[in-house]
Design the sequence.
């Protein structure tokens, strides 16, 4: 797990199963449980990093909870953990990953790790592009002599170099995870085919 303790919300209408998941994760995560969709929507806020969400629940379904989370613009990752076999309806759904029950402790820990790593990569990539954009603008607008004499520009270049290494390291870590490796290859191959 990451150094900061991630906050995980387990949304599962079978209390025994929800409590089992919580027991598996409580040593490494701050865990909250909700036993129905309404309770989940009351519990979720900006402090939640990952939601483990059952699809089939009485009252508000997991699908409705997921839609509401996305409509609220909450910046959390959502993994569906469900007995519902995936079908083509999942294409338009806003979840980040999908696990079919039964799941093991190792699978839950791994999916949380992967979702947090993706979040870290997203933030690193956003900062990298923001820094690269600033550098490109200054490269276009300032002379080489002006850039060379600027302490701020030197610091920008250093920050950009550090962020580039972090992005590469995080991408390498993502690639080393078995399930993600094939996905990244598929994305790379797809982009090559489209060129």
Sequence:
């Amino acid at each position: 797990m990451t150094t900061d303790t991630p906050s995980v919300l387990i949304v599962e209408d079978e209390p025994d199963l929800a409590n089992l998941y919580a027991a598996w994760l409580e040593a490494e995560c701050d865990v909250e449980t909700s036993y129905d969709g309404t309770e989940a929507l009351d519990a979720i806020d900006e402090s939640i990093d990952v939601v483990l969400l059952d699809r089939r629940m009485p009252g508000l379904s997991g699908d409705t909870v997921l839609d509401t989370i996305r409509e609220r613009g909450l910046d959390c990752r959502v993994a569906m953990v469900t007995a519902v076999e995936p079908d083509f309806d999942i294409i338009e759904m806003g979840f980040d990953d999908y696990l079919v029950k039964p799941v093991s402790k190792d699978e839950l820990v791994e999916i949380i790790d992967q979702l947090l790593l993706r979040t870290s990569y997203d933030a690193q990539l956003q900062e990298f592009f923001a820094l690269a954009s600033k550098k490109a603008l200054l490269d276009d607008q300032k002379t080489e002599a002006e850039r060379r004499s600027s302490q701020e520009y030197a610091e920008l270049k250093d920050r950009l170099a550090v962020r580039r290494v972090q992005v590469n390291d995080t991408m390498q870590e993502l690639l080393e995870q078995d399930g993600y490796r094939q996905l990244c290859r598929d994305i790379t191959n797809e982009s090559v085919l489209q060129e």
Observations:
- The chain has two domains: 7-103, 113-191.
